[in-house]
Fold:
Amino acid sequence: MTQQSESTTGTTTREADDPALPSPLAPPHPPLAEPRPSAERRVWPRTFHDRLTAPLPGLKAIARFAREGAVRPSPEGLADIPRLPYAPGPLPRVDARTIAVTWAGHASWVLRIGGLTVLTDPVWSRRILGTPARITPVGVPWEELPRVDAVVISHNHYDHLDAPTLRRLPRDTPVFAPAGLARWFHRRRFTRVTELDWWEAAELDGVRFDFVPSHHWSKRTLTDTCHSLWGGWVLTDRDGQRVYFAGDTGYGHWFSRIGRRYPGIDLALFPIGAYDPRWWLRDVHCNPEEAVRAAQDLGARRMAPMHWATFVLSAEPVLEPLTRVREAWDKAGLPRENLWDMPIGASRVLQGN
Structure:
């Protein structure tokens, strides 16, 4: 399936009307959407199947997957678990003009931007449904977190939307979520949930939160496939500094469009793991080489790899994503200091303009 439509108001529009696409009459960078009201109640389509950029696996693919059974690394691929990078340290002190990121593991970051502390896809649990326990500890103890000013969620898969972790937060914590997911939070008594469609934005204390497309899907139960949207986030502070959080995604056409719409991305937090077997996962998970290519498509100045070294979700050796992303970065001729290949628990600081 190819991408047929996208929506900016809860209804679909033709791809030809996509404001992120260039045209002879369009400015170089299309104007950004006006921020939506915070925590507004909205009505969405029952399904977002039309946003898929590849068909979901059919019966033949599922049968092949069951027959081959290649869902975990070999014993040799697991032998490097003790060598996985883990170096927790104190959170850096920052001001409102400084961006800092701390990798808690998987897709969970403590992002300091514009004076806010933002958690991305927070998963502090030891185990998630259907997956062995995490193979590295959480990089930031929960009790050492500063006050959490906001949470961004990329999609509803269990390794990105973790109910036990979210229950630790005050129920008035601002949450930015994909279209169709507010109901999940409202059932858990969260009161400040802003759900957005692709290319829409909201603001909190001078920081802009833009929800952007990704090549993925959503499912949490047997009956809710693609009932909520999926995507990434571009966070922009008052000085125009930008951080892109990809969430979970395969490689495809969206990255160049995001880069045109949000030029000057200073840092891309990008997934590099859970890619093998390739025939099964290529449409929804980048491999390391594709992640580097996507960062180039975005025009991102720096890239920090994530979505590896935390949970065993697929068949590649546990250290392979790091080796391959370093090789791909070097092969692309990119400055080595701009690959923030951080250990879990480590922090990096991006000084303000």
About this structure: The longest helix spans residues 320-331.
